[in-house]
Design a protein that fits this description.
Layout (H helix, E strand, L loop, with lengths): L8 H19 L6 H19 L4 H8 L7 H8 L1 E5 L12 E8 L2 E8 L5 H6 L7 H17 L3 E7 L6 H5 L2 H14 L4 E10 H8 L3 E5 L3 E3 L3 H8 L6 H8 L3 H7 L4 E3 L10 H19 L4 H13 L9
Parallel strand pairs: 3-4, 4-5, 5-6, 5-7, 6-8
Antiparallel strand pairs: 1-2, 2-3
Length: about 325
């Protein structure tokens, strides 16, 4: 059963009526409802196109947070082979919000690291809704340094509302861990490909996404703060999140124009959750293309180009 977003309620009504008709026909074989149901299907298809042809930034936020979107685990299972998870930061504990390990991508050895939100209540609690603690970022640092030592490209899959803001996390050095992870991203001499698959929230995302290439799914978001948080600070009213989403320029399209993101990966009509296999294939093709661009570069050139990329941020698209 599809979970519909607020702005999709008219679509839900039409698709619901079509399903009701077919359910009635299944109970009574003498009923012929296919023509009427097909007409409703056509109407729903037209409405889906209309809804998604010009999504506002706030609606893109809603799509990016859809609970049925493919998560890190889905990408790892579909795109990588021989995945061997590596756990722990060798200092305090393992953080289930961060998944990482050795794998093969198109038979090429790589290190993959990502945020995992979970798929149901139990797994979301286990993975802390994808919000990493200091040990998660320190685990990422350990894996990135290992990849650098053995010459393995790094692929990061970003999907987090932000780093966990709890008391324990702050006591264990949350800000230092995020800064260290970001620093490590800048220092490794191997290709680092980052894909924003859902939410890219605050420093919790930057710590994984300071890469040579940043790809964003069409309806993903990447921002220094959530629209609700921004609205609470600027307007003292979280209900102004729509205005905040507009002002933050957090969409893949805006960020490509500004030079923050490099690639926009097209999603199936209606969002990644409506056709997961197509989304996974599109991401696979994008990762393959970005890795091919970097495969012949040596460590010094990779580090120099990466540093220049981030030092030049802000010089592109300022007049937009």
């Amino acid at each position: 059963m599809t979970n519909y977003l607020d702005f999709e309620k008219p679509l839900a009504e039409i698709e619901g009526k079509a399903e009701e008709l077919r359910a009635m026909a299944r109970q009574n074989e003498e009923m012929d409802v296919e023509a009427e149901a097909a007409a409703l299907d056509a109407k729903a298809a037209d409405m889906l196109v209309e809804l998604y042809q010009s999504l506002t930034p706030w609606r893109k936020c809603q799509v990016a947070r859809h609970p049925e979107r493919p998560h890190c685990r889905d990408y790892i299972e579909a795109l990588f082979t021989e995945f061997t998870p590596l756990a722990g930061d060798r200092n305090f504990a393992d953080d289930y919000a961060v998944t990482g390990g050795l794998a093969r991508f198109n038979d090429q050895p790589v290190m993959v690291i990502g945020h995992e939100k979970g798929h149901d209540t139990k797994s979301r609690i286990k993975h802390n809704f994808g919000m990493a603690r200091p040990e998660g970022y320190r685990k990422a640092v350990r894996l990135m340094e290992m990849a650098d030592k053995f010459g393995l490209p790094i692929i990061s899959l970003v999907d987090t509302a932000g780093a966990y803001p709890g008391k324990g996390a702050e006591e264990r050095g949350q800000s230092e861990a995020i800064a260290r992870s970001t620093e490590t991203c800048l220092q490794v001499g191997v290709p680092l490909i980052s894909v924003i698959i859902g939410e890219g929230g605050s420093g919790g995302a930057v710590a994984f996404a300071t890469g040579d290439r940043i790809a964003m799914l069409e309806h993903s978001i990447y921002s220094v703060i959530s629209p609700e948080g921004c609205a609470s600070i600027l307007w003292k009213d979280a209900e102004k999140m729509r205005e905040a989403a507009e002002a933050l320029r957090l969409t893949a399209q805006d960020l490509t124009q500004l030079g923050v993101a490099d690639v926009v990966i097209k999603e199936p009509l209606g969002g990644a959750h409506r056709d997961k296999p197509a989304t996974l294939e599109a991401v696979k093709a994008a990762i393959g293309g970005m890795l091919a661009e970097l495969e012949d570069k040596d460590a010094k050139d990779i580090i120099a180009a990466r540093r220049k990329k981030y030092l030049d941020l802000g010089s592109k698209g300022l007049a937009a």
